[in-house]
Amino acid sequence: MKLAILGSGPLALETALHFDKLGAHVTLFSRGELGGMAARVNSFASETSMEETWGELTTELGREALKLNVDLSDIPSNDEYFKTYFAPLVARGSQSIIIKPGNVERVHKRFLSPDEEVPGKSRLQDLFRVVFSTDPKKSILNQVESNPELFEKLGNDVLESLSESVESFEDFDLIINAMGTHSNPTPMGPSGSYALNESRLTAQTNTYYGRDCLSHYKEVTSSSKHIVMVGSGHLSALLLCELDLWLEDNNERVVSLVTTENRPFEKFLNDHKESTLGLMTTEVINKYFEKLQVSRREYEKALFEWRGLEPHIKAKKAAPKEPMSQLNLITASNVTAIDKLLDREGLFVTCETSSFRSSTEGMEEQISTISCDGIFVCTGHEVDTTIAKGMRVNLERRGENISHAEPGYFTLSGVEEGRSSLSAGLKKISKIETEIMNFFSRA
To answer: Are residues 334 and 424 in the same domain?
Structure first.
């Protein structure tokens, strides 16, 4: 049985090891280094808690392979999980698992169309074809440095052609797509669509989406005084807790959070109120609210004293400056446009507040514009429906479905009942095994 596993995260690796032990010929397609989104979070905030126990985050197969000696009821940090379990598991690996670096472009049947049947047989009669592209800079172009004289003879036109990615393919009996949704973040506009000018301007500015917010965090914060975050979910909470340190370092720095919720992080906190990240998020919001209240009381006192000055003294002394919060919460709102001036750096973000979302009676719809230096878009992710176009695959349930009407194609993610966790994904591996075994047990 020749099996392709698509993905680079912990779920993809655990699945590869699981089916390798069962005797399958496993090929793992990994766009980057093994670890996926979990590795990005670890490199960004390694001290944060994994929120689940060792027993939930690991498999018996992995623990036995590493002879892992931990209390399975303990909850590790991201750093502990990666150093103690995931990294050693990657290093140990398996000589029989083939790891192919590259970006999977699409998966389809070799010959069958979606409405076509094989007379008297299953569609499994036809193999799956995985089309992937590779970065030649990591292979061919590296040879330029070792043998510059040869490549100089080839000329610039040949060298430029070598820099273009090339598509290849390989055929498999079965496919397990463990890529998840993090490679397909949603835009910042209403209904998961683009705001005005968004698709045109983001490539030219400090605007990043989903996991790229983590990768470019230092770049954006080092050159910004005002950052806009769009969305108030798990990723936004993680960024906010890190931005707290950035705000503390300079009182002139500001973070503006735009969310469709009446209360920021309401849904996230309902699900993760007692988690480490949930408690930290609540603490950060309360901190800047209380800080603003103290500043306002001091401002009112100073303003009262200024107004009581003699006219000739008041004329020489500036009025107290009204305090502004370093954490600006723009609730019940959508980003509807972004703009950029030709003669200056930065962005202008237009937000529109909906009256029907607000819990405040009589509130009118409002439009406001924010000037900022960078934008972190954390509005969630959508399942990529293009990768399996042309097959009987339904990817609309945000990763919850495992099997599809296309026999032999499986989707593996940690999504369960609208929530995502590594433990939920690990439990699905055995379910996929059961479904695969059913194919071979049929008469």
So the answer is: no
